[in-house]
Amino acid sequence: MNSTVANTYHLGVKELWSLWRDPAMLALIVYAFSLQIYSAATAMLETLHRAPIAIVDEDASPLSAKIASAFYPPLFSVPRLVSPAVQDHGMDAGAYTFALDIPPDFQRDLLAGRRPAIQLNVDATRMSQAFAGSGYVQQIVNNTVNEFVQRYRGSNAPPVDLVLRTRFNPNLEKGWFGAMMEVINNVTMLSIILTGAALIREREHGTIEHLLVMPVTPAQIMLGKVWSMGLVVLLAVALSLTLIVEGALHVPIRGSLALFLGAAAVHLFAATALGIFLATFARSMPQFGMLVILTLLPLELLSGGTTPYESMPQPVQYLMELAPTSHFVRLAQAILYRGAGLEVVWRSLLAIAVIGAVLFTISLARFRRTIAQMT
Amino acid sequence: MTTAHIDAGEIVACMRDVHLRYGKTLALDGVDLDLPAGRMVGLIGPDGVGKSSLLALIAGTHAMQQGQMRVLDGDMRSKRHRDQVCPRIAYMPQGLGRNLYPTLSVEENLQFFARLFGHGAAERRRRIDTLTASTGLRPFLERPVGKLSGGMKQKLGLCCALIHDPELLILDEPTTGVDPLARAQFWALIAEIRAGHPGMSVIVATAYMDEAQRFDWLVAMDAGRVLSTSTPQALLERTGSRSLEEAFIAVLPEARRRGHTPVQVPPLQADDAASAIEARDLTMRFGDFVAVDHVNFRIRRGEIFGFLGSNGCGKTTTMKMLTGLLPASEGSASLFGRPLDPRDIDTRRRVGYMSQAFSLYGELTVRQNLVLHARLFHVPEAQIPARVDEMLDRFGLREVVASLPGKLPLGVRQRLSLAVAMVHRPELLILDEPTSGVDPVARDAFWRLMIELARRDRVTLFISTHFMNEAERCDRISLMHAGRVLVTGAPERLVRDSGAATLEQAFIGYLKAADGSTAGITSGTGTPVLPAARPPARVRRRLFSPARAASYAWREALELRRDPVRATLALAGSLLLMVVIGFGINMDVENLSYAVLDHDQTGLSRNYALNLAGSRYFIEHAPLQSYTDIDRRMRSGELSLAIEIPPGFARDVERGDHAQIAAWVDGAMPTRAETVRGYVQGMHQAWLAERARQGQGTAAGAFDIETRFRYNPDVRSLPAIVPAVLPLLLLMLPAMLTALSVVREKELGSIINLYVTPVTRSEFLLGKQAPYVVLAMLNFLLMTLLAVFGFDVPIKGSFPTLLLAAAIFSVIATGMGLLASTFTRSQIAAMLLTMIATMIPAVQFSGMIDPVPSLEGMGRLIGNIYPATYMINISRGVFSKALGFAQLRGAFGPLLLAVPVILGAAIALLRKQAS
Fold first, then answer.
1. 3-class DSSP state for residue B341?
2. pTM for this structure?
3. Same domain, residue pair A276 and A348
4. A200 to chain B: nearest residue by CA?
5. Staple A121 to which of A99, B337, B636, B884, CB 3.0 to 4.6 Å?
6. Which helix (H) or strand (E) holds A55?
7. What is this model's ipTM?
8. What is the CATH number of the domain that holds A111?
9. What digits encode the pLDDT tens for the residues B704-717?
10. A to B CB pairs, distance under 8 Å
11. Cα distance between residue B456 and residue B451, in whole Å
12. Which residues of B touch A283 (CB under 8 A)?
């Protein structure tokens, strides 16, 4: 037992040295956890940020001017006033997501009770802005028109107010979310590539054979990679969260950082095991490269970090339950934003651990067989 | 320094004060040397004295640092001269088949090199036929190089080097690790070639002194300097030695010799009681191929047991079975009287193994490698420093203790491997060609050590070798051939029994007897080896030769075809990803969970709550009880929305008092929160309007907003997402495919072909890129078919426009992979760089989800210059917006601009010489 710990420790230290001697890798890791997170977080401040909008004002009345002036940054870009002919072209080219067409005599018809209609064109290929944005546009137009009519008529304020409060991220700053998701994506990406590729490299260079004739078991070899690469990534995460996310980006971390790092460690176990798992299927580095893309892309896009998890079709949701990242994203959101404790997140934590253990066990069973295949 | 006289005008290479440094190490320390033309020149000297470095400089594969170097009447510093003489020089690097492509067949490798030198199809055929006929490779034309024996690889390497009629042939330890028979054949071949081409100059570095004996001219080197130049005879006379091996030791400086004395082997004390290894009918099959065929032997404790045999005869496989690395197909083996069990950790601790291929950690220093192995073998921590020091001294590794093994010469690396195998004082050492590539002095030192271990410490040695003088020192040897043990016995007995004069002749005799006629030493064909008397193909130097680029493209395509898993993964994988992502990404926020905290519990309050429940966007959960309930359930992520209706809500509304409904939205995921807010507000407005209508029925001030979702009227996610996923996949997979292609050649050694053949950097890169562009286009067509027929997302606009854009984009995507590949040194780094440089910008900054005009800061900047942005625009324009080339013209500009920028950067970063 003692020798297991010692072997695993020494094998891990060896991995750390290997990494230390590859400056390009170190630079990439630093970049991934600093600049990349920073740029991802600052690129998109809110969901509806500077949504490009155009207004076709065929009415040219005080009301239509009021409507046009109701759109301003940061939610919307300053509206471009365009002619009906230009409107189509602009939408085709993707210059704006929304085009609001106020018909001739809109103000007159409105006041006369003739129920005129404003046309709102939405570029529905831009899904993220199309939905949230069209709601906003409608609301802004509604409010402006109501206000105008009320002032004109002197009628009362609406009887019931809706007070909307957003919890956990009051201003809906997307940067907070972007930064966190970027951290999580990097954790997964690095753990898979670092461990998986390290294993393939040992196979390609024949060093793994050397290890296998020593009093060292495959489990120790794998655990050596798991703990060392896990430690590197964990350290990077801790630094990134405190220096970049909290420091430079001023994102308040609500929950316990220690709990999150503990959970990240469990996730790292699962992700590094996934890396080794993939490496036992690939027979060369180029094949591993393909497998990495096939795995990482769905993990990044479908774990609930990019789009809402519950909106995905049921079969995809079931499939993604098998991915450790889905559970980790859920857990990270709960801890970091909502300040949830272990009593809330234990289920996700357990799921990640089980997935990791299963992957590790399968890899272990395949380990020797794949070494024999290499030559 | 003694220098023999050479007539002026007969000099093939001339060096003055040549220095070369690798970091802090000085490899060449002021070399002044003139090499005669038309001769066979040998470079001899201990390991790590700069022989390989000197050859690399002469061949022009390594950049000059200091001094003068003229080869074939021109300055090797000048790029123009290098380009000109490159087709006149042939260079075979150290290591078995390092510049060959293992998955390609013999024929394909030869075709590739012949194409690089611009021969036509008929000329290629003729040259390949004559060369393979005279080397005996003819029957193996179809065999993949990876499956050839070491000797055959070297012959093929020679054929590849000779395919273009070089005037100067440079061979760096061509016979290291090659069995005696194959070595004899190799030199016979060289002799024939020279007979047919008297003008050809040959420069060889070798560790075999018996080979050096036959050369015309010898250069002895030590510590980056030339010790002497003379003919072998002159050297022998001057040093008064009988053999060149002795002469070699004699010319070394005193310090180097370390009190060298001939190796003496005390006889083995007969002790039959205990056996260290026993193999019974040991057999290994790989598919149909029987690598080891019922092998039997028994090695006694303390015995030195030699294993001899041709390359690929099964020695290594047998050794691997004994170490437990390979499970035997049949038969059994025991170590120390116990049946072999790969899981038996205790036995492993008693065994040391050194594999044939160098397999230490290149990223750890010499000391770190030793310490790591000592620890893994559980040497007590307190003893480790002493043990490591002992190894450093014994194997002469003191000076390199802090170096990385990858930077050391072959011979020193071998010594390190040995030291590592012995650091834990094993009782049994299994050594697979431990001395190949090691200089004679170091070999003798090694053997003294082995003998001491065997006789004094009674360590059992099981060793394979190609050196006959080493085999003679063994207590017993086995001759192995084609998987079978031909004969076992004491070396003297084998020589006596076969009636040969030397062990080498006995060995060759046994092999010939076993193999029949095929193993002739000379080719025996009598045909001239080189297709002489034709004007050599002198390709006019051009900036870009399509033929050479095509030959790289052809080779890369072949490699891709030999690895169908990779191509299949790329094609099937992209379709699979498209399905998963296409269905998975759904911006249409639905099925949001919400609950109501109703303090009022009146008809009106229920009416308000019902208003939400009726929507398809929301799913109601059990009512909330209290604020703590809200807190708990939102914290766990169960609820996305909580509504609170205040007490007295109905009463206030009736009275016309100000009433307030509170709604809490989970902001942890902003996109979703934003949508939820929109929905809730919309529904609140609708509820108010409904009430107003019921109450007053007024029409004044009423108006409608007609929302038209254009390009995608049903607002389905699929038509919005699929046209964006297509460029994403078209970027990532091809980029990853090419990313490993260049750096892999760097890591595995075949990059040397870029240095020594006339191929230019742009031909090399563009050639490698071409097959992947074709693959990417195939990928694009498959994905388009899937989109149209599988997903029912029609192409509304102009398909030719999309096709054109995809073609340009494929060039960009593969170019980005090449760029990542030329930028990095290891495959892992290239892979990581590609992931970081493609996935993140493409997913986040290219308008796939958030439009680029809405981005800020660095993201906006990246989005504006990143090619995927424009490809997504074109793809969406054609698929969803029914646009054609005229409307999308603007997006083509940036795409076209990206091509020369990316490829230019990749070419600029690639080096035509090692530095």
1. coil
2. 0.81
3. yes
4. B828
5. A99
6. strand A53-57
7. 0.81
8. 3.40.1710.10
9. 777 777 777 666 67
10. 493
11. 8
12. 565
